[in-house]
Amino acid sequence: MPKITAQGKTIECESGANLRQVLLKNGIDLYNSGSTVINCRGIGTCGTCAVEIEGDI
């Protein structure tokens, strides 16, 4: 089962789960500063969400 570490929390999720949805469900804030108000709400058009991936994908 994949593990996600963000903002000091480690979360396990199903393989193939939507990363954005998993983070939001677990109370992880995806945005900072002005992007909290101005973002695409997960459509994928603004580029304000960024992740760093370690290990095999």
Task: Write up this protein.
The chain is built from 1 helix and 2 strands. With 57 residues, it is α+β, with helices and mostly antiparallel strands. It has a two-stranded antiparallel ribbon. Strand 1 (3-6) and strand 2 (9-12) form a beta hairpin.
Core attributes:
57 residues, globular, two-stranded antiparallel ribbon, single chain, 1 helix, alpha+beta
Itemize the secondary structure elements and their pairings:
Blueprint: E1 3-6, E2 9-12, H1 19-25
Antiparallel strand pairs: 1-2
- Record the strand order, biggest sheet: 1-2
On the 0 to 100 scale, the average pLDDT is 85
Task: Bin the strand percentage.
Answer: 5-15%
Radius of gyration: 12 Å
- Assembly type: single chain
Rounded to the nearest angstrom, the distance between the terminal CA atoms is: 12 Å
SS-based structural class? alpha+beta
Which regions have little confidence, pLDDT < 50, spanning 5+ residues? none
| Total strand segments | 2
Order of helices and strands: EEH
Helix content: 10-25%
- Number of helices, counting only DSSP H or I runs of 4 residues or more: 1
So what's the overall shape?
globular
Number of domains: 1
